[in-house]
Design goal:
Strand content: 15-25%
CATH superfamily of the largest domain: Aldolase class I
Strand order of the largest sheet: 1-2-3-4-5-6-8-9
Distance between the termini: 36 Å
Radius of gyration: 20 Å
CATH topology of the largest domain: TIM Barrel
CATH architecture of the largest domain: Alpha-Beta Barrel
Number of strands: 13
Number of domains: 2
Oligomer: single chain
Shape: globular
Length: about 350
Amino acid sequence: MPFRTVLTTRLGLRFPVLVAPLGRGSTPEFLGSVAREGAFAFVALGHIPEAELRQTLSGYAAAAGGPDRFGVNLVLIADQMQRLETALDAGCRVVSLLRGDPARYARRAVDAGATVFWTVSGPDEAKRAADCGVDFIVAQGREAGGHLTGEAPLMTVLPAVIDAAQGIPVVAAGGIADGRGLAAALALGACGAWMGTRFVASVESGTHPGHKQAIVASGVSDLVETTLFDGGWPNSPHRVIANSTYRSWRAAGSPPNGSRPGEGEQIGSFPEGGAMLRYNVSTPWATMDGDWEAGPLYAGTSASLIPSIEPVGRILARIDAEAESALRTGVGYLDSAFAEERDGQ
């Protein structure tokens, strides 16, 4: 059943599903698959050298069916205005912002005719969204994988953000991997769901196959919140699957940065030729050489809901069917209660 929300209408989607940026896992092929199936994916720009950004965006646009069929994500821990200008000049018209002050980025993007999403930590930030010119708010629950900004579990933070949003539509993020989660988000007043972990474990994502398998094999107890993988993004909490790097660090007494086991050790090479060091922020990608398992295996608590690696189209179709079933079941409970009340009168 097609879910029509302000999100699907604004972006021309079949499903009210946004796919989080997956680092180097957001390949052109992956973004193209998501776009063709009727959802919408974002790509992080921070790891792309500025000199290569225009050409890289051109490849994404060709695969996705145009520069408006995928979104660009900017993490505002550094000045990102040049990257934003390049993306806008390349025709990108959907922008996602995280951390920092979004105001000047949002206003510049809106002036260029772009739609702006801002991932907020809670209701206090949501209150600022209207003044910043943001079109959609992403309310992140603490259950999320990757880098965390949400300050509370989703079932708490989502309604609080919606109440504070002054009418700006809100997308739910964190811990959602199936249609039941989407249905819950819609029932709480969200216009859609933002999912990452579920699509890391998709056939088409460019994430390392071992990372995908680790998600399928993981339960909640295998996941940890930490600031351990800080190379390139210090002091940022994130959720990962506990791996050899994490276990070695814990066994050594959790020493501080500069005294950790294997500090400065190369575990692989980046596509552009640079050394990837242990504790680097970058998630392992499909063609990574070296010790991919030692890198950060980002995953949210929703990993426990992911039984297998599947194609994007099958994932979206199942989410749609499960959401419809969950909502119809809820309506059925209400109908039964009303019938019992009538019969008892």
